[in-house]
Amino acid sequence: MACSNFTPLWGSSKLSSPSRLALQAPRSPRPSSSTVVCSLRDLRDRIDSVKNTQKITEAMKLVAAAKVRRAQEAVVSGRPFSETLVEVLYNINEQLQTEDVDVPLTRVRPVRKIALVVVTGDRGLCGAYNNAIIRKAEQRMAELSVLGIEYTLISVGKKGNVYFQRRPHIPVDRFLDAGNQPTAKEAQAIADDVFSLFVSEEVDKVELLYTKFVSLVKSDPVIHTLLPLSPKGEICDVNGVCVDAAEDELFRLTTKEGKLTVERDVVRTPTPAFSPILQFEQDPVQILDALLPLYLNSQILRALQESLASELAARMTAMSNATDNAVELKKTLSILYNRQRQAKITGEILEIVAGADALV
User: Fold this and answer.
1) Over 50: is that where the pLDDT of 22 sits?
2) Around Cβ 150, how many Cβ atoms within 10 Å?
3) Which listed site, 57, 218, 271, 335, has its alpha carbon 20 to 30 Å from 80?
């Protein structure tokens, strides 16, 4: 009997695949009227298959860990630009405190239609990462429907693209790919699209849904208001709670007691005042009008980087769980193999003894 018919004992004949190992822990064999006993050869093949799966999941875990570190380096390398940008934004706002600033990206209008930018991953085998952000988007769309507010989506990432393409009743303005290494080019494509929608008054508000990287075992789907921006470039959630642009969270991947861990620090950008004798060649409003799109681009890029780090951390956790399940399944199968082998040897010995007794 082929070992592929071993389903009643283990619950699935495809448990050796990484995705199944990540989602389903092995169970001890239980008596069943339909139990199929595998031969020793079939059990050996099954054990070898689980060993190969374990090697694959271990390799995928190490690759994901290395990519998380690169994602951290990308966030760190982008800080000097964002620090300088925030510093200039603060000081220009000091010059404009007494003026009535009219910048298109800061114009608040009655909300009749909202654009939702949903950032998902390009690949699977990362646990509930993609499902969590898609579920968050579904909840937000349900809330807007109850309020009678129209919405349209900008889907970023292959998993989200496939999901929304299969649901034609959901209005999607554009499908975009996030890429394995988010750069300013990908962020600019998203920023150009939301900028044109907002300035042309096709939408009155733009919200960004992405996964915030908290730790290697935790990530939170969040919603931030991209547009309209505040003159200081503050980032606000849907409840109106804003975070000062000068404050930023920086995560560092470190090792503690032989295990990878993440440390987060709240970093405040120093914002020294410009010299009082300094004068701008252009009108400060024009400078602010040019800087806010840059700041919008930097915030989108940061969200893409955080989402990538969350996806890689989720994949590393899923592959770690798959490896542990493979080890446990291999151990259980080895015990069953040894029991059958022992039973076979015992049976052969009894046959020899019985034959010897019959000759006496």
Assistant:
1) no
2) 13
3) 218
Tokens 């059990």 correspond to 43
Tokens of 48: 């070898």
Tens digit of pLDDT for each residue in 116-127? Answer: 999 999 888 888
CA distance 46 to 75: 44
Euclidean distance between CA atoms 195 and 115, whole angstroms: 11
Cβ atoms 129, 219 nearer than 8 A? yes
Residue 236, strand partner residues: 225, 242
Lowest mean pLDDT among 13-22, 82-91, 221-230, 285-294: 13-22
Task: Tell me if the pTM is above 0.85.
Answer: no
Sorting pLDDT into bands at 50, 70 and 90, what band is 167? Answer: very high
Residue 207 in contact with residue 117, Cβ under 8 Å?
yes
Token duo for residue 95: 């010059």
Q: Got the DSSP string for 229-275?
A: PPTT--EEETTS-EE-TTEEEEEEEEEETTEEEEEEEEEE---PPPP
Separation between Cα atoms, residue 197 and residue 117, nearest integer Å:
12
78, 298 Cβ separation under 8 angstroms: yes
Strand partners for 224: 208, 237
Which amino acid would we find at residue 73? E
From residue 327, alpha-carbon distances to 24, 37, 127, 276, 302 in Å are 13, 22, 19, 68, 38
Nearest to 126 by CA among 154, 153, 159, 155: 159
Q: Give me the helices (H) in the chain, please.
A: 7-10, 18-23, 40-77, 79-95, 129-147, 158-165, 184-199, 284-359
H/E segment holding residue 227: strand 218-227
Q: What's the DSSP call for residue 289?
A: H
How confident is residue 171, by pLDDT bands cut at 50, 70 and 90? very high
* CB 303, CB 210: distance < 8 Å: yes
- Using CA atoms, how far apart are residues 271 and 265, in angstroms rounded to an integer? 18
* Residue whose structure tokens are 């955080």: 306
DSSP 8-state assignment for residue 106: G
pLDDT of amino acid 296: 84
Peptide bond into 31 cis (omega under 30): no
Q: Is 179 left (phi over 0), alpha (psi -120 to 50) or beta?
A: left
